[in-house]
Amino acid sequence: MRLRALTIRILRQIIRDKRTIGMLLFAPILVLTMLHLVFDGDDYVPKVGLVGIPKEISSNLDLENAEITYYDVLADAEADLSEREIDGYVTLEKQQPIIYLEGSDPTVNGATLKWIQATFSSLQEAGSIKSVESQVHYLHGSSEMGQFDYFGPVLLGFFVFFFVFIIAGVSFIRERSTGTLERLLATPLRKWEIVLGYVFGFGIVTMIQSTIIAAYAVYVLDMMMEGSFLLVLLVILALAFTALTLGILISSFANNELQMIQFIPVIVVPQVFFSGLFNLETISNWLSWIGPFTPLYYAAEALRDIMVRGNGLEDILMEIIILFSFSLLFMVLNILALRKYRKI
């Protein structure tokens, strides 16, 4: 009887919590739907440039299954490769194909190189050109670059975002449940002062945590680092403040720690699909437009620009501005959300 009574009490408690029931049903369906749309996308189509290839040669090539751009000037192809308008280009020197790859994504490198080798193999077999495998150059990275080198910056950003989001949200809920927030609201403090106080307070801890995580990834795990570590810290801190302010904001809509955890599949997990772990060009059009509305999208791109491509501040400045803009937006929303706890 006691076991039955306990079971009924728990069931009634869950049934009364409409938000928990909704999350139990909605969150798995959302994640499974996104996984279906991601993995049901098209195969990656490499973007290849042909530089100064004679017409008598290019006319004998099967140029399907790739986006082809023709160049008469080598400098134009180099510029487009640097801007990632193309994944690689081919030029001929003394009947020897010379291949240049952008190099920052091993998966794209493999698809591009495979297409080039398959396309030029017929000319190689006919003796029109030499081997297509002997001359391959990389703008970024090398043939030894592994998947961890490419995905590492994304994972670094994700884990910083994830843990800061959880810690900030749960800590703010504890402030409410212990009555600390209510006592603060009863003082002459303004709402924006309370929000900034929490952001700066949690922000100091966040800065220390983010610095340790980034330093460990780069100097202990030997994650690829072509650019400045200080720029990596700057991006990580901008992302951490975004996660901090978002975590505090989302906690305003949760009544306890369990409900805060339930927001993870809705707020955090979907951002993984647009962070660079999956090529956005192969993702279904139903999802690809969401990426620019997520903070992790910009953080992952900035981290990859620094750590893999060796870019400087001028190349990632826009991403940093956008991340801090997210933080500012979430802080403003936090100030507005405090109205539910204080009657004006």
Task: Summarize the structure in words.
With 344 residues, this protein is an alpha/beta fold. The chain has two domains: 47-138, D-Maltodextrin-Binding Protein, domain 2; 147-340, no CATH class. Helices cover 63% and strands 7% of the residues. It contains 15 helices and five strands. It has helices spanning 2-16, 18-39, 55-58, 74-82, 106-125, 147-177, 180-185, 191-220, 229-251, 257-262, 264-267, 269-272, 285-288, 295-307, 313-337, and strands spanning 47-51, 67-71, 88-93, 96-101, 136-138. The protein has a five-stranded mixed β-sheet, with helices on both faces. Strand 4 (96-101), helix 5 (106-125) and strand 5 form a beta-alpha-beta unit. Helix 6 (147-177) packs parallel to helix 9 (229-251), helix 8 runs antiparallel to helix 15 (313-337) and helix 9 runs antiparallel to helix 14. The mean pLDDT is 80. InterPro entries: ABC-2_transporter_component, ABC2_TM, ABC2_TM_bact-type. Residues 113-341 form the ABC transmembrane type-2 domain. This is ABC transporter permease.
Describe this structure in a few short sentences.
It is a multi-pass membrane protein. Helices cover 63% and strands 7% of the residues.
Short descriptors:
344 residues; alpha/beta; D-Maltodextrin-Binding Protein, domain 2; 2 domains; five-stranded mixed beta sheet; 7% strand
